[in-house]
Specification:
Elements (H helix, E strand, L loop, with lengths): L1 H43 L2 H6 L35 E5 L6 E5 L5 E2 L18 H11 L4 H23 L12 H17 L10 H15 L6 E9 L5 E9 L1 H22 L9 E3 L5 H6 L8 E3 L6 H30 L5 H6 L5 H4 L1 H9 L2 H9 L6 H31 L5 H28 L7 H9 L3 H30 L4 H4 L1
Antiparallel strand pairs: 1-2, 2-3, 4-5, 6-7
């Protein structure tokens, strides 16, 4: 029995020993597998990861770390991440997905790291942004002269607005002019105060030109606000078109005003050419009677040009160019002025002041001739009339305009009666209407001939009444501006004509 018990104990001890060995073997194999996995992971890691996790093993060489010293194709080490200054945070842009920096105290945002030093980068002008900002800050501080100039402009603008609102009646405005007449008078007075009588051709001073352009801009501000509804075609997003009503500056204003302002600039350019560098002309003061003898003009107050004879070729060419430009402006301004006045309403009080019979104005013979004769016969009659000066021309034009109005009123009344009468009486009314229409047309035609032949003639009583009683601000401004430009162009042309006469070169005027 003892031998059996001893054999059993030996078997149990052997089994226990084998179990311990197996557990140790299993544990060592697990550790070996984990080490193998870690080694595989290290081999698969990218070179950048190796650089970010430095090895402490002294046995590992630089080649095994992926670092090749002196190799130009190697990747440089990553820059050290700078810490954010206090108060800054990193945010992600929703649209681009990029990071940007936000200052929680000031709300400022920027793409650049706030810890980087700001370099003074030059812009297109060659000046850094910081220097430019400092310069703007310095320039932004007005000096005493700037403040005084701005205060004067503000004072002038206040006075201008007061005149417009009160209609030049500073007692309260109850007896003031209409806004249209106020602007018309303001433009006329501004031209007289700026240019005066224009005694000679010379460059206009910079201060004078600036004053004129500034104040004429003020006077034209109300005109540019006159709008009408006009149909325009609008393209929809789907490509279809639709007609809509849109506000636009009135057609006559947007057409005539830019042309008149362009003429104004051209007149300044013409006068600026009479200087030492371009057209060198000397002038001397005239005495009463001197202009009449020298040039056939009675404007003794106008200075006399001193021109070398014969004219140099370049001087003649410059004068020819100035004459052509002045004539173009003169004809354009006159045409616009006549067109604007023709669209003004004839005042009722003016119509009521006219006599009932045209013979009371021009006589029976002339009245009968205009109603019975042809247009050619009327022109022959006009050519035989002795015309002395512009005032007589203006009086004759006014007479023709008045009888045209009388006959036009009678024509309208005759046509109205003709529509209400019996058929048997129509023949008599038709004859009267034909005579009245012929007489009206002949009178207007002769008035137009006189106006074209004598453009220097002043405005007639009818035209003055139309301007005074007109209530359309746009028409008043266009009429006044075209009138003052016509007057300035006429004065310039008169000086050019005297220069050509003094130089014995009248052929320049006809070219």
């Amino acid at each position: 029995g003892e031998s059996e018990e001893r054999a059993l104990e030996e078997n149990l001890w052997q089994a226990h020993t084998e179990t311990s060995v197996e557990e140790e073997t299993s544990s060592s194999s697990d550790e070996t597998d984990e080490e193998a996995d870690e080694k595989a992971d290290e081999e698969e890691a990218p070179a950048a990861f190796s650089l970010m996790t430095p090895h402490t093993d002294s046995n590992v060489g630089d080649d095994e770390l992926g670092i090749h010293l002196g190799d130009e194709t190697s990747h440089p080490p990553l820059a050290e991440v700078k810490p954010l200054p206090e108060g800054w945070e990193i945010l992600i842009d929703d649209d681009s997905g990029f990071e940007y920096y936000h200052n929680m105290d000031t709300g400022e945002v920027q793409w650049e790291h706030p810890g980087n030093e700001k370099k003074e980068e030059c812009e297109l002008g060659g000046v850094s942004e910081e220097i430019a900002r400092k310069s703007l800050a310095i320039l932004g501080q007005p000096d005493e002269e700037d403040i005084s100039h701005a205060y004067k402009e503000l004072t002038d603008l206040k006075a201008f607005m007061s005149k417009i609102v009160l209609g030049n009646d500073f007692s309260g405005g109850t007896n003031g002019d209409s806004p249209a007449l106020t602007i018309s008078l303001a433009i006329t007075n501004l031209a007289s105060a700026t240019f005066g009588q224009l005694n000679r051709l010379q460059p206009v001073g910079k201060a004078v030109e600036t004053k004129w352009k500034k104040e004429i801009e003020w006077l034209l501000l109300p005109v540019q606000q006159i709008v009408v509804l006009e149909p325009v075609v609008k393209i929809l997003p789907d490509g279809s078109s639709v007609e809509v009503m849109q506000q636009q500056v009135r057609k006559d204003i947007r057409t005539m005003l830019p042309q008149l302002l362009a003429c104004d600039s051209t007149l300044f350019e013409i006068m600026s050419r009479f200087c030492e560098e371009d057209i060198k002309i000397s002038w001397k003061k005239s005495q009463p009677g001197q202009q009449t003898t020298a040039t056939g003009s009675d404007q003794w107050w106008v200075d006399t040009p001193v021109v070398p004879k014969p004219l140099a070729s370049h001087l003649a060419e410059s004068l020819r160019s100035c004459i052509y430009q002045t004539n173009e402006i003169l004809s354009k301004a006159r045409e616009m002025n006549v067109d604007v006045i023709s669209r003004m309403k004839v005042p009722t009080n003016y119509l009521s002041s006219l006599p009932d019979n045209a013979a009371q104005i021009v006589g029976k013979e002339v009245s009968k001739m205009l109603k019975k004769k042809s247009t050619k016969d009327c022109e022959t009659f006009l050519s035989k009339c002795d015309i002395l000066d512009g005032l007589q021309v203006s009086s004759m034009i006014g007479q023709f305009q008045d009888i045209a109005l009388i006959w036009d009123q009678k024509l309208q009344a005759t046509l109205k009666k003709k529509a209400e009468t019996k058929v048997t009486d129509m023949l008599m009314f038709a004859k009267d209407a034909k005579d009245l229409e012929r007489g009206r047309n002949n009178a207007l035609h002769l008035a137009q001939i006189l106006r074209l032949a004598h453009p220097e003639a002043p405005q007639t009583r009818l035209e003055t009444s139309q301007i005074k009683e007109n209530l359309d601000v746009g028409l008043s401004a266009l009429e006044a501006l075209s009138r003052v430009l016509e007057g300035r162009a006429s004065a310039i042309y008169g000086h050019l004509k005297r220069i050509c006469q003094q130089a014995d070169a009248p052929h320049l005027l006809s070219q």
